[in-house]
Design goal:
Length: 139
Amino acid sequence: MSVALLDTHALVWLLTGSDRLGDKARKLIQQAAEEDNLFLSAISPWEIGMLISKGRLVLDRDVGEWIEEALSLPGIRLEPLSPEIAVASTRLPGDIHPDPADRIIASTARHLAAMLITDDRLLLDYGRAGHIKVIKAGL
């Protein structure tokens, strides 16, 4: 059984058909989706909205519609931001990302015991330190 959690940029790369998403990550995403074990943190829609509001991301339609369509894809589920995940994000072991959204994503990965698909250097380092399971999203 493959449980996978998409970092925000991995979701964007996947759904926009970006060639930045590597083959290994694509295979894990496909396997997890087929097993209904592909997750997205509840903070990711907020991050996408923020990227758009800052002009750092442009989508082909309204962000609300884009996210709604993304979450309607077979096999992908939104993991709620539970009080347990929120509090755990403040108690993560080791040296962790200072960004609150990335802390929530790391906490969600730990909560689900999921493989986090990311290209974020600090999250990859956190995984190498043994605190979460990670796979590099990019090439």
